[in-house]
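User: I'm putting together notes for a lab meeting next week and I want to include a structural view of one of the chains we've been expressing. I don't have a solved structure, so I'd like a prediction I can at least talk through. The sequence is below, exactly as it appears in our construct file.
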Amino acid sequence: MTYCDEQKKSPFSSDEAKSIIKDALKALGKKHFAFIAHSNSFPAEKGKNTGFGAVNSNAAKNLINFLSGVFTDIQLGPSGKTKSIDASPYTGTIFSNNPLFIDLEQLTTDEWHNILSWETYQNITENNPNKNTNRTAYSYIFGKQNEALKEAFENFKKCDCPELKEKFAKYKEENKFWLEKDSLYEALTEEHGNDYWPMWKSEIDKCLFNPQNEEQKVQYENRIKELQEKYSDIIEFYSFCQFVISMQNDKSREYAQSKGMKMIADRQVAFSDRDNWAYQAYFLKGWCLGCPPDYFSEDGQMWGFPVMDPEKLFNKDGSLAEGGLLMKQLYKKMFKENPGGVRIDHMVGLIDPWVYVSGKKPKIEEGAGRLYSSPEHPILSRYAIAKMEDLNDEVEADKEERIIKLTEEQIKQYGALVEKIVIAAAEEVGLDKDSIVCEDLGTLTYPVVSVMKEYDLQGMKLIQFVVPEKPEHPYRCKNITPRSWAMVGTHDNEPIRMWADQTVNTEAGYLNGKNLAEDLMPEATEEEKEACAVRCSKDASYLTERKFVELFACKAENIQIFFTDFLGLYDVYNRPGTSGDKNWSLRIPDNYEEVYCNNLKEGTALNLPYILKLAIQARGSEFASQNQELINKLESIM
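Assistant: Thanks for the context. Below is the predicted structure for the 638-residue chain, given as structure tokens.
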């Protein structure tokens, strides 16, 4: 019996409690309530920790059972294949899935004809250096997972499983357009002894899918056939891994949907080395995608990712060119596989991207600029949609306020990629634009704001990043619009309690408290509001509580919450602009129910019934009176 069960403090302890929570969310106008957890952060069952989380595991099913009935969605991270030296999911491939997300245990069962031995699986779990912590062991599992999958592949080739092999053949044919390239890259890493194609000695191998003339085309096609014959087993193994993860993903999504939850995918704006090699003909030579100097970095962020060539996205008549068709295939695949929708990380990258010269810093003085918003730039001007008369020439090119006006036609041009690729892909698989979650945090240039408004897209409101000195700041409770996704923080932020600890005893703490009092205590006296502001400036627990109330009291129809904020974990998943083993390694503890219950007792985890009660009351006495019966029910499960 856990603390939650004994004290009836958990909103997840019974179906009745979950039903009350669900009614409260509905009363507050919430359509979606998403739990943010990247697949690698999922917990493990006791004795089954391989060193990496997987949404396809039995532990993931248990977590879904725990969350279901309250949460409507799980916001996953990018699912692409990562490199051995970089755990960041935001550098993964655009089509291939990450083999690390394969649940090895399933391969030891009759369903998969026992193609992996239990001994191999057990050896991996027993020797996991982080098996007793809630941290991934990335370097360890990267190698061990590959060894285990090779064993499974060898046994798969020998097994008497015609139905499974028939499905494999069908999968390869249906996904040939991307799988052929991605698997061939794997063969070339063996050929050249490394997986970074710019270091390969053969100029032909660097450009196999980028011939410049008919003679090269024939030469490259012959080379491709030669490699396919020489490395057929490596290519087949790569395809097998992609088949397994696809099969497991399908079952996981079906299971989640059976529990009333959907998966939301995450599409990073970046391309991996593998993608860069395969589709280099569509990229702008000599330019990289990055971020100008901002909150996270004084010199900007040198992401190093290739930039789609605008002239390869669309033809002169506005139809999709080869690069545009590729992007549409990607989004169509993602929407088809994820009926919950797709979160587009760094939406500005599709509308008003910041680009810099390869090898230089992403700063104006070193030639950087906005790809479509730099009519004065000696090189980028050829792609400019904005004209000189649309600029405030007293504002630097990296500032949000630089463009001050656009025509309807210009807004459509800025939004062409969104309209003709992203929205069109969603609609072709039966979804609508509300299945698009737009991460528009940080940079809200006029083109981005205009396109979001033109297509009525749902952006994000990060209340941890509110600027309290600005009464009309869009992340403040009273200014948050219904058609948006609100959250206290994302995977890139410190937990809200850590933020509160750093904010108290500062002017920002008092100003935050003053705004929260005005927004959440509309009928209070000035003395009561001042008391709230002062308390917020001194009491981190109270400031945290007020921010949670703000999250649910605001008018946003959709809410997301990162697992650290929900469970009350005082740790960071990712610090942007930094690298190292600690980044991207935090996991949900295997004993998450116990942790959640203990942290509820300590007042650090999210106590939903209590916060929702306060959120209803924050809407004013009339609204609270209309929902008094619901408030009483919430109190009964607090």
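A couple of points you could mention at the meeting. Residues 279-457 form one domain. DSSP finds 26 helices and twelve strands in the chain.

User: Perfect, that's what I needed.
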